[in-house]
């Protein structure tokens, strides 16, 4: 089943093919708007709308797109977290900066990143269940992964940010949290 990006109404059809190159967007039975206008959008525009916290863009990504590799994306996020933690360790260390860290340190950082993610997933789930009217709990993990793309911003922060690095990382965390909450917003009925 697909979902109308405007109102969240369930539907089984996003568009009709009129010819090999022409499609006609289906309209929602509930709100009469096109079920998913992002079908005709470029991926970059969809990404910009997601960055701007538009719920419709997230509904498209979560319910109507054919992104299947959320597990791979999650692994990329974990590796980003590990790399950030590893760089922080390197800066704090008094040792020679070029000295490579052992596999044991990498494994420990990876394990910590997994525990950190699980902790975040559980706490956020409890918070939205107890204190908000966010109603989209279906596809919870998929929603969290797809809306946590802000984690990738950690890499340019490490490369280009020399001052105010901590503030930048805090802003990234806030951006990820607000993206997650926007994506988890359910239909308004
Ligand atoms: Zn609708």
TrEMBL record:
InterPro entries from the UniProt entry: Arv1
Compartments (UniProt record): Endoplasmic reticulum membrane
Top-level taxon of the source organism: Eukaryota
GO biological process, one term: sterol metabolic process
Positions of transmembrane segments: 73-89, 109-131, 143-161, 167-184
Predominant localisation class: endoplasmic reticulum
GO CC, any one term: endoplasmic reticulum membrane
Keyword Endoplasmic reticulum: yes
Similarity annotation: Belongs to the ARV1 family.
Protein name per Swiss-Prot or TrEMBL: Protein ARV
Protein source organism: Helobdella robusta
Gene responsible for this protein: 20194921
């Amino acid at each position: 089943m697909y979902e109308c990006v405007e109102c969240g109404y369930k539907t089984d059809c996003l568009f009709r093919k009129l010819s090999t190159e022409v499609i006609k967007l289906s309209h929602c039975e509930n709100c009469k708007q096109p079920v998913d206008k992002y079908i005709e959008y470029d991926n970059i525009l969809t990404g910009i709308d997601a960055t701007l916290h538009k719920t419709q863009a997230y509904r498209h990504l979560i319910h109507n797109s054919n992104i299947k590799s959320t597990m791979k994306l999650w692994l990329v996020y974990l590796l980003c977290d590990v790399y950030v933690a590893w760089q922080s360790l390197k800066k704090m260390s008094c040792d020679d900066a070029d000295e490579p860290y052992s596999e044991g340190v990498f494994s420990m950082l990876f394990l910590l990143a997994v525990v950190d993610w699980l902790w975040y997933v559980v706490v956020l789930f409890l918070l939205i269940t107890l204190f908000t009217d966010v109603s989209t709990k279906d596809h919870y993990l998929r929603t969290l992964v797809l809306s946590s793309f802000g984690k990738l911003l950690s890499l340019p922060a490490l490369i280009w940010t020399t001052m105010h690095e901590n503030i930048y990382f805090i802003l990234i965390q806030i951006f990820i949290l607000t993206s997650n909450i926007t994506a988890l917003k359910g239909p308004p009925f």
